[in-house]
What does this fold into?
Amino acid sequence: MKAVRTARGAGIARIAVSSVTIALAMVFALGATALVAEPINQLKAAGVSMLISEQHLHLVHETADRIYVLDKGVTVFSGTMAQFDASPEVAEKYLMVMQ
It folds into this structure.
């Protein structure tokens, strides 16, 4: 597999026209959650599995089936979005999100 650097959105478009079934994406939504979430959800519906590194919880809520929170390389939380939402202490402690 060859790593490719692309402009925002171009990488998602490239995945959509190829025949991949798994993709790794570093998404920089920068407040454009709706613009980024739609193509990600379209790829999910097409059966593409993705590992996305993202810090904006709005995008994570719009797209993720599962969430993993890492602290210094150690997984401190693993679960569904519903499980994450039911554990506000995780967001407060590791993501500096106040409930």
Remarks:
- Residues 1-8 have pLDDT under 50 and may be disordered.
- The helical segments are 10-17, 33-45, 57-63, 81-85, 88-94.
- The two ends are 41 Å apart (CA to CA).
